[in-house]
Structures are given as C-alpha cells and as structure tokens.
Amino acid sequence: MRELQKTRELGYHQRGSVEHEGYDGAHSNFRGEISHQNGVHLFEKILSRNNLNQAFLQVVRNKGAAGVDGMTYDQLLPYLKERKEELLNSLRNGTFRPKPVLRVEIPKSNGGVRKLGIPTVIDRMIQQAINQVLQPIFDPTFSENSFGFRPKRSAHQAIMRAKSYYEQGYKYVVDIDMKAYFDTVNHDKLMYFVEQKIQDKRVLKLIRMYLTSGIMVNGLFENSEEGTPQGGNLSPLLSNIYLNEFDKLLTKRGHKFVRYADDCNIYVKSKRAGYRVMSSSIKFLEKELKLTVNREKSAVGSSLKRKFLGFCIMPMKHGVKIRPHQQAKLSVKQKLRKLTKRNRGRSIELVLKQIKQLMTGWISYYGISVMKSFMKELNGWLKRRLRQYIWKQWKKPKTRYKNLIRLGTDESKAYEWSNTRKGYWRISASYILHRSLTDEKLAQLGYMDISEKYQFVHSNY
C-alpha cells in the first residue's frame, strides 16, 4: 500500500513543476518502474545527442507530408542547426508544447476512410526519440503472439503463426474488430499502463502532452480527449502497451491467438467455444479497456474464409498453404485498371513506372501466398490493357500505320489495321498487336513481368 501511495504522489497526472535533472526518484522497484538506464535518466537519454540524431535520420528516411506548421522533412536540418538549443531548453524547462496533428482521411478499399494524423516534423522527431528509448523497455513484456509494430516481427510471421494453429486443429477463428481503435484509446488507462514501467515524471508528462495536443481538421482545432492518432511515431508503441492487457488475459486463459496492432484473431476448435470466447473478450475490451467492438464485422467463422491481414488459410493435398483474400485480389486489379485507363493522358513510360511501383510492393507482401494461376492470369490481362493503352495513344490512322511499320508489320497489314473500326479492347487482343507490341517490346518500354516477379519472390519463402 505504501508503494501505491508513492506512485500517486509522484504521478504524471499532478501537473505541478517538473523535477530537476538531478531528481533521483523515490519509487520502489516492486512493480518494475524505471527512471533511468545505465545511470542516465530516461528523459536525458531521450534528449541525448546520439538518440536525437538517430530519430532525425529516421524521420528524414520516412519522408512524409508536412504538419500544421508547413515544415517539410528536408527543412528540418536547417531548423535544427539554427534553433536546436532553444528546442532542447524548452523541453528541459517544461515550456515545450507539441503542435496539433493535421487530420487527413485516406480512402479504404471498402468505401470507408481511415483517419490519419500528421504531426509536425519536429514532433515526429521527438516522438521517435521517445519511442527509441521506451521500445526496448516495453517490448520484452509483450506477448509472443503480438506481431505488429515490433522489432524483427512482421505480418508474414503473424499469418504463419495463424497457419500453425490451423494445422494443430484450431480451425475456427474468433475475429474481433475494434471500431476506430486508435481514436478511442482511453488516455488515463493508457498512462496508468505506461506508469507501471516508467516513473520519470518528465517522460510521462511529455507523453501525456502528445496525447492531448489536439487535432486540426479543415483549419479548425479539436481537442483530443481520447485516442492515439494513427500517423504519429509513438502511437504504435502506445497502442501495443494498451492492448498488451488484452494479450495478458488471453494468455492467462490459455487461448491460441495472433494480434497485429488492433487486428486480433483467437483460434478455437469449435464454433461453440468461439462464441463463448467472443462474449468474454468483448466484455473485457469494452468494460475494462473502454474500447468499442464492431459487432457487425466481428464474427466466429472458418479460417478458410475469414480475412486476416489480407490473407486466408488454404488446405491443399500436401499441407496447409496461405492465399491472398479475394478482396486483396479485387483491390489490386482495380488499382491496375485505374492506372491503365486508356484516357489518362500519361506517357506509357510513366504508367509502366507506376505499375512497377505498385506491383513490387504488392508482390513483396503477398508473395508468401500460393497464387501462381492468379498471377499468370493477371499478367496476361495487364499486358492486354497496356496494348490497348498504347493503341489509344497512337490515335490517328497515320500514326498507327507509321508505328506498325516501325515495329515490323508489313505495309498492307499496317494499312489495314491502322484504318480498322474495331474497338480498342478487341484490337488489344488481335494478333497484329501481339506481333508488333510483343512482350519483349513491352519489357523494353519498362514493363516488369509480374508473373515472373511473383515466382522469384515466392521461391525465396
């Protein structure tokens, strides 16, 4: 009881003066609170030269848009050269105040929007500096079944863990969807969880200020009384600290589960068990963590049909494999359709560059899946779309005739096809375009064969 009283006495929520740098703290280590590492206070470690330099480099590597102050990532270095000491002094004497995050909305494939917050580059650097110091403290306490936003962990590892549960006989999944999770995290509960490991009041105060810095929406300021806006460098760690309490509960009850950020799947052997687990999980999330579960999207179902991180499980003759969910296939095809829309008015070289950028990332992520036939089909469809695009760009019969001749078509055939009235899509499948705009020619223009790319990436898994 005495230790609890001490915690409250020195807690971050007391908004009095900040302790001096030499403040030694008086907490018991009974609950594992940390005020310093290697003899250095956490706050000073956050502001150390090496840590700030590392944070600066990370922000520059990430690039990203400007925040409410309009400062871009390439303007950060000149600013720091001129005002570094002023910034450090404001942090040390407690006068520093984070700026509101800029709210932007990113369209989702299902028609909704994802709300992101863009902090200023200065705030991104400071958040990153905090993250670099706190991550090694908290990460060892996280569950082995948590994979999101953690060092040396990935979505691929998460889906492989899910696959292993299916192979063990856990063929039903409790898919829990949290409604606007990042926007509904309770600040007081979050700070209580952070305080279990961190006792340096200055660090706690700085984190609290970032949580309550506010949001700028269409030029209007809004208070941020709850939530950790997606987009901040510190938000992923804070979200894991918060949901680690749910992980502890699932682990204590012996459940098989995989969590990636706010996407959590619990694996059971029967539907009946699934409904029981879902009921108790929703009760904990809503009552204890003050979150809202989207009951319309949450469900108990087969791992073969429920989407997890864009993937599904697929039993085959020689074992269990992973496949991309149908929605992921439809989404990428729709994006390719937009890029190759024949009236875009962009050069074919630019279109091919954009396709390469899109598909390199998509294949790197989904390359773990078994989808050889899909990629072969998509590759053929895409090359036909490109031939249609080029044919449309040639426009006039005179231009078509000249280009067909240049590509090796004899004059009579070039004249015949350059004056045809057949539609663009029909022409794109004709032998005349396949013989002139060959696969080799498309490759010379910059086309990356996505079927070959997939097979290369998949072979390395």
Task: Provide the descriptors you would attach to this structure in a database record.
461 residues; alpha+beta; four-stranded mixed β-sheet; 20 helices; globular; disordered N terminus
Task: Explain this structure.
Residues 1-31 have low confidence and may be disordered. The chain has 461 residues and is of the alpha+beta class. The protein has a 4-stranded mixed β-sheet with strand order 4-3-6-7, with no helix packed on it. A 4-stranded antiparallel β-sheet has the order 8-9-5-10, sandwiched between helices. A two-stranded antiparallel ribbon has the order 1-2. The chain has 20 helices and 12 strands. Helix 3 (49-62) crosses helix 5 (121-138) and helix 15 runs antiparallel to helix 16 (411-418). The longest helix has 23 residues, at 372-394. A hairpin with a 5-residue loop joins strand 3 and strand 4.
Physical arrangement of strands within the biggest beta sheet: 4-3-6-7
Hey, roughly how much beta strand do the residues contain?
Answer: 5-15%
Enumerate the spans where pLDDT stays under 50 for 5 or more consecutive residues.
1-31
Main sheet characteristics = 4 strands, mixed
Helix content: 40-55%
* Global geometry: globular
- Helix count equals 20
Radius of gyration: 27 Å
Task: Calculate the terminal CA-CA distance, rounded to whole Å.
Answer: 53 Å
Number of strands: 12
Classification by helices and strands = alpha+beta
Mean pLDDT: 89
Describe the secondary structure blueprint for this structure.
Layout: H1 2-9, E1 36-37, E2 40-41, H2 42-46, H3 49-62, H4 76-93, E3 101-107, E4 113-118, H5 121-138, H6 155-167, E5 172-176, H7 181-184, H8 187-195, H9 201-211, E6 215-217, E7 220-222, H10 235-252, E8 256-260, E9 263-268, H11 271-287, E10 299-302, E11 311-316, E12 319-324, H12 326-339, H13 348-366, H14 372-394, H15 397-406, H16 411-418, H17 424-428, H18 431-436, H19 439-445, H20 450-459
Parallel strand pairs: 3-6
Antiparallel strand pairs: 1-2, 3-4, 5-9, 5-10, 6-7, 8-9, 11-12
Helix pairs in contact: 3-5, 8-9, 13-20, 14-20, 15-16
